[in-house]
Design a protein that fits this description.
598 residues; 24 strands; 8-stranded mixed beta sheet; alpha+beta; 19 helices
């Protein structure tokens, strides 16, 4: 008995099926009229098959009258294409199906955006009609990649000895982190649940409960503004935690998972597979990363290394820098290999770019056949210029750019300039995924305005040196067992070895201005649990959306999320957020601001 809708999918038929009677169902993807013979590409989830409707047949008339994206069921015979019409880029490209019957399952209305073309359409149209957008080949492929990546992550975690657990979606609001999404309670008027920003508390409590290795493909909810690499509202992460581990143990457990997934999908829809950093991944201390790369998420595909050249300008002839250094500034230098062969407009253009980004400017020296030129070279002593050349290993036709400011700002400008110089000079390594760990983050930082000491990264991390360090060291010199995993300049996740001892936690929070009573009140669930015996534990949570974005080589995370919101955190397709009825509000004991008292 023939299936009601299909004997084969639209990606299944091959030369071996020639002369077979088949039934296919799918969407009318394209139509082409060649001298009265109608060719139709029929598409389903699995692929495309070319249909042929003979001139003058009723089937030609039926298909010709349909708009693109109408859904049809086709009965027909598989025939071999003539040699000159074979499509080598299509798995079904050696055959076509001669139409013998057409059943229209659903006729399409006029389309608000084309499916067959990969034309870039405005975001509002794409998101309002996301179900049409997802029919397009690139989006469809990305979402399938996402599914396969998640399946691979899950299998690899299980192979590493992790067990999957689900943690609550309705939980308590957290005083730390980003802004919560709140959910009013009908049963407890005036009280609210919060959607979890991450399963952080729960996964640590699972370790206290005695489960050794936890993981979850976890949904997380944060009321944050959108960015190219961050969805507004919700995202997914590979959340994991381990007991009785050091930082090295965490790295050794997750590197084969991440490295393996990237190696597995490095060839996804590419003729040439991308290379992946072999394990173990490089480890870069935070302070070194800020100095050498200008940020804590370095793109190691860029070979340029920033250098501190403050000493060569201190008291020197270039008065602008010399005076700024007296006020506490530093000078960071970014090499530009071969830039001396370019016109002066390249250097002036970099200076204009810096000003356009809100900076005062970007100094430079350009070398042509070893001769230094530019405003700095005219004023800085020759021996100082030679010392910069020697320190940085500059060649006779290289250039170098300088950022002079207070250390954090100089690092930021130098980091941005490093990226632009590397890109503009074509130095960025292509077809590669370059991983690294950023380690040894400072435990605390001082507020620039008030000088108040606060946590710099994660308040629940174990300080290096533990209680002794907290009691004896300058807080700004204490490092923490905190780490980030970075790929191609994108932070995939932060993680830490956790502070599992109440005495160390009380002291750590005391330095940041918290009383013991505040800790007991605001972090009651965790601190109380730790009082009943907690194992040393640590973990991390690489972002699934960002992993897929990198593997798909997409510039925006929206392209790898099935139903994303727009930049204003609106779901244009479902019209969310939306108003609710007065009845619903009354059930929740909520009155909107401005409502008259009732």
């Amino acid at each position: 008995m023939t299936h009601a809708y299909r004997t084969h999918t639209c990606g299944a038929l091959r030369v071996a099926d020639v002369s077979s009677s088949v039934r296919l169902s799918g969407w009318v993807h394209r139509k082409r009229d060649h001298g009265g013979v109608l060719f139709v590409d029929l598409r389903d989830h699995h692929g495309l098959t070319q249909l042929v409707a003979a001139a003058g047949s009723e089937h030609l008339a039926t298909l010709d009258a349909l708009r693109l994206e109408s859904v049809v069921t086709i009965d027909g015979e598989v025939v071999a294409r003539e040699a000159g019409t074979i499509n080598p880029n299509l798995p079904t490209g050696e055959i076509e199906v001669r139409v013998r019957g057409v059943t229209v399952q659903s006729a399409a209305a006029e389309l608000p955006l084309p499916v067959a073309a990969d034309t870039d359409y405005p975001e509002e149209i794409r998101l309002k009609y996301r179900y049409l957008d997802l029919r397009r080949e690139r989006l469809h492929r990305n979402i399938m990649l996402r599914s396969k990546v998640i399946a691979s992550l899950r299998q690899r975690m299980i192979a590493q000895g992790f067990t999957e657990f689900q943690t609550p979606i309705l939980t308590a609001s957290s005083p730390e982190g980003a802004r919560d999404f709140l959910v009013p309670s009908r049963m407890h008027p005036g009280k609210f649940y919060a959607l979890p920003q991450a399963p952080q508390m729960f996964k640590q409590l699972l370790m206290v409960a005695g489960f050794d290795r936890y993981f979850q493909i976890a949904p997380c909810f944060r009321d944050e503004d959108a960015r190219a690499d961050r969805s507004p509202g919700e995202f997914y992460q590979l959340d994991f935690e381990m007991s009785f581990v050091t930082q090295d143990d965490v790295f050794q457990a997750i590197e084969p998972v991440l490295g393996g997934v990237f190696e597995e999908f490095a060839s996804w829809n590419r003729e040439t597979p991308w290379s992946v950093t072999p394990t173990p991944f490089p480890r870069i201390p935070y302070a070194e990363s800020m100095l050498r790369y200008g940020n804590d998420k370095p793109d190691l595909r860029n070979p340029l290394i920033i250098a501190d050249v403050t000493a060569h300008f201190c008291g020197g002839g270039f008065g602008v820098f010399s005076r700024m250094i007296e006020g506490g500034a530093v000078v960071r230098a970014v090499p530009a290999p071969g830039a001396g062969l370019k016109a002066r407009s390249f250097f002036d253009g970099m200076n204009d770019w810096a000003r356009g980004e809100g900076w005062a400017g970007l100094g430079y020296i350009n070398f042509k056949s070893g001769e230094a030129a530019g405003p700095i070279a005219k004023n800085l002593e020759a021996d100082r210029v030679a010392a910069i050349v020697a320190q940085m290993g500059l060649g006779p036709d290289d250039g170098v750019f300088f950022a002079c400011d207070q250390a954090p700002r100089a690092a930021r400008l130098a980091g941005q300039a490093r990226t632009k110089v590397g890109t503009d000079l074509g130095l960025i390594e292509q077809n590669a995924y370059r991983f690294c760990w950023i380690v040894d983050f400072p435990m605390y930082e001082a507020d620039e305005d008030t000088g108040r000491i606060d946590f710099s990264h994660n308040p629940f991390s174990m300080p290096q040196g533990e209680l002794e360090a907290l009691e004896t060291k300058n807080p700004l010199e204490i490092l923490a067992y905190q780490y980030d995993i970075v790929c191609n300049g994108t932070e995939l996740s932060s993680g830490a070895i956790r502070n599992h001892r109440p005495d160390i936690m009380y002291k750590a929070f005391e330095i940041a201005g918290y009383t013991q009573a505040q800790v007991d009140r605001e972090f009651a669930g965790m601190i109380n649990a730790f009082k009943f015996g907690a194992p040393p534990h640590g973990g991390s949570a690489p972002g699934v959306d960002r992993i897929v974005m990198l593997l798909a080589d997409e510039p925006n995370i929206r392209e790898v999320v099935v139903f994303p919101m727009n930049q204003k955190a609106e779901d244009l397709m479902m019209n969310a957020p939306s108003e609710v009825s007065e009845k619903q509000l009354r059930e929740l004991s909520i009155r909107l601001a401005g409502d008259p008292a009732k």
